[in-house]
Structure formats: C-alpha cells, structure tokens
Design goal:
The protein has 411 residues and is mostly helical. It has helices spanning 2-21, 33-48, 72-84, 88-114, 117-129, 131-137, 142-160, 166-178, 182-198, 200-209, 211-231, 235-244, 249-261, 266-272, 275-291, 293-299, 319-332, 337-354, 369-381, 388-410. Helix 4 runs antiparallel to helix 6 (131-137). The radius of gyration is 22 Å and the shape is globular. The two termini are 38 Å apart. The relative contact order is 0.10.
Length: 411
C-alpha cells in the first residue's frame, strides 16, 4: 500500500509541476507592472547593491511603486536572474518553485497532523490543481513564498516535537515567511503563542532533554520575528494599509456621513456610528465573505490580475465537501485537540484578509489554503458507505474535467 501511495504522490507532483512550469516564460503572455518592478529591482540590487531608488540592500520593504512590498522574494529572484538573465522566466521561476513545494509540504503537514495518507494525498491533489494555487504560481506574487515558508514552519514544528533539531528549521522558515509578505508579519506572532499553548506539555519535555536546542530556536525566532513586528508600524509597512485597511480615509468619511444622517438621540448616534463598531461589523462581515461560496467556487476575485474573469478559485465539485468538512471540524473540535487547533489556525491565517476592504482578497487569503484543502479532503473521506471509493473516483474525474475547462479559459 505504501508503494501505491508513493506512486500517487509522484503523479500528483508531476501534475503540479506541469501546471506551474509549462511555458512559464510565455504564459501569461506579458509581465504585469508588479512583475516588472520586482524583476528590475532584483536586477538592480544584483548589479549595484541598490534598488531602483538607490536604497542599499533594503531589508524589510522596498519602495517599488510606493506600495513597499516585502523583500524576501526580491533576494530569492537574484540567483535566477544571474543564471538565466533578466526575463519573464527568471522573474517568475521562484514563485513557481514555491508553489510546487507547497504541494509537497501540504502532503507532509496533513499527514503529520492527522496521520492519514488518504487525506494528505487528496489535500496535495487539491493544492496541485486548484486555480487558487495554480494562477499565483505562474506570476510574481509575494504570497507564494510566504505561504510555503509558513507551511514549512508548521510542518517542521510538528516534526520537531519528536526530532528537536528540526525546530531550528521551523524557526528559520517562520522568520523567512515574515520577510516574504505583510500577511505573515501578522500571522506568525499570533501563531507562535498558539503553538506553544497547544503543545506545551510536549515542549516542556523537549526543554528538559534538549534545552540548548530550544533556547537556540527561541533566539532565532527573536532575531527574525521581533524586528518584523516593530517594522509593522513603520511608514513603509503602513503605506498601503492606510488605504486597504478597514479603518481608512473612506471608512472615516462613511462613519461621519452616517453620523450626519442619523436622526435619533445624540448618545445613540455616538454609540452606533464610531470606529470600534464599524471595525467589528466589518471584520465579522469579512470573515463571512471569506467563507461563503460565491467568490471561492464561482466568481473568484473581480480583480482580474488574480484570476480569469468569473472563474472560481476552487472547483465547484468540491463545494459540498468543504462545508461538510467545516461542520465536522466544528463538531469534533469540542473533544479532539487537532480539530480545534486546525480551526484556530484557519481563523488566524484568514485574519490579514479579514482586516482589509475591497474585493474578495484572494491573494491575502492564500495563507489559509492548507486548511481549505484539509476541510475538503476530510469532508470527502468522511463519507463512510459502500460506494465511497466510486464517489471519490467520480469526484476526481469531474475535477479533471473542470481543470481542463480552466486551462482552456486560462489560455
């Protein structure tokens, strides 16, 4: 059985590689403005040690077009430009590699967390074929590297509880993820205390037998994480959030307008129309929009830089299994810690997307994709009846049909 599982995994990885690397330099047909900025700044640093604005080796952010992206992707791109030259392939290749690695890491992570080859393999299959992963992997998006490094950090943490030296790798991956995207600068500082809380008894035992490793891991985390937390409040990091965060100039104008039009007592006006209430209403509504099916399974983002028009981010055939899996996790989280941990991880990974306004934030929500795929896989494999394997085969067959249709749309 192990040989069959390994063969299936290899086939999934071959499919993932084909969908990400085939004609990568030519499809999409043109670099977009972000890819051009990313590639040229990497090239400039390689040649001169400065970005296009003359800043020497930017550490946390580089200016770009004034939206100050993070820098890890920039430095990961330099070796490819050095070898392949400054072109579309060299600029996109790091994202494609990160997207490919994400598929394999998801298999490893789910297998360690749930000890189920079937659910792990199907989660990897979903990661290999879903538009939500394929589309960003074929362009330059900061989310690719950050989500892969975050997932690697989680996997090596779980493995490191039994092999403590791997906790050092986990700390490095978590740290790199924070230099790769603004999202993980919020997620990682919240995630580390959660991991400590859930696995404290095991960590306590590790500390008793491998104190030096745990202290060194903590030192690495402090060196990589604390400066990034402080940088969150810098003008560069807050430049874009000023306009896409829930509380922005537009929302403040909206609150003021609601106050002006309110006809009730002044005390009620002030109690209802204020920033905290607006923020709370918005974040609850945003979480709902991140879980309701319209964007995820039918339309995707309406910003067509992130997906073809009116194309779902996950294939429609998987819709019922996502909600079935979500319901099961909510029920089982009352008595099984791994389900509760998964749901909390899901909520934390969706938080950066929920803190913003505008169209469906498909790129900002990619950090939660491991749990999206885990929920679908668990929902499908939880159907215990005589014809289960035939249902699974049918679902896979329909998903390949949807994949073929998506490729046609993409091309």
């Amino acid at each position: 059985m192990k040989k069959i599982h390994n063969l299936i995994l290899v086939l999934i990885l071959i499919l993932a590689g084909f969908l990400r690397f085939w004609q990568l330099g030519n499809l999409p047909a043109s670099l977009n403005w972000d890819e051009i900025s990313h590639g040229y700044n990497a090239y400039s640093i390689m040649k001169t040690g400065q970005d296009q604005w003359g800043v020497k080796f930017p550490l946390f952010n580089f200016r770009a077009y004034g939206d100050y992206p993070t820098t890890a992707n920039l430095y990961f791109t330099i070796p490819f430009i050095k070898v392949l030259g400054l072109n579309a392939l060299s600029v996109r290749l790091p994202s494609a590699i990160a997207g490919f690695a994400f598929v394999y890491l998801l298999y490893l992570f789910v297998n360690v967390l749930f000890n189920s080859e079937s659910i792990a393999l199907f989660s990897a299959f979903l990661a290999a074929i879903s538009p939500w992963t394929v589309f960003p992997s074929r362009g330059v998006f900061q989310s690719d590297l950050s989500q892969t490094m975050l997932l690697a950090g989680l996997y090596f943490f779980l493995v490191g509880l039994k092999k403590p030296y791997k906790l050092i790798i986990s700390a490095i991956c978590f740290g790199i993820s924070m230099y790769a995207y603004h999202n993980t600068r919020i997620i990682v500082p919240l995630l580390i205390p959660i991991l400590v809380f859930f696995y404290f008894p095991v960590i306590k035992k590790v500390f008793a037998t491998h104190r030096n490793i745990l202290l060194f891991t903590s030192l690495i985390l402090a060196i990589l994480v604390i400066p990034n937390i402080l940088n969150l409040f810098s003008p560069e990091s807050t430049a874009r959030n000023r306009w896409i965060g829930i509380i922005n100039p537009n929302s403040i104008n909206l609150i003021n307008e609601k106050r002006r039009l309110f006809t009730g007592p002044k005390i009620f006006n002030l109690a209802i129309n204020n920033k905290p209430i607006y923020f709370l209403q918005s974040i609850v509504g945003n979480y709902y929009s991140l879980l309701e099916p319209t964007a995820i399974f039918f339309k995707g983002s309406q910003d067509y830089q992130f997906n073809p028009p009116n194309t779902g981010l996950i294939f429609i055939i998987f819709l019922p299994f996502f909600y079935l899996g979500l319901i099961q996790f909510l029920i089982k989280s009352r008595y099984d810690v791994k389900y509760l941990f998964s749901l909390i991880l899901f909520a934390v990974c969706l938080l950066p997307a929920a803190l913003t306004t505008g169209d469906f934030p498909s790129i900002r929500a990619t950090t939660a994709l491991p749990i999206f795929f885990l929920l679908i896989s668990h929902g499908l494999f939880s159907l215990k009846f005589h014809f289960q394997k035939y249902i699974i085969i049918l679902v896979i067959f329909i998903s390949f049909f949807e994949l073929a249709n998506y490729i046609k749309t993409y091309l």
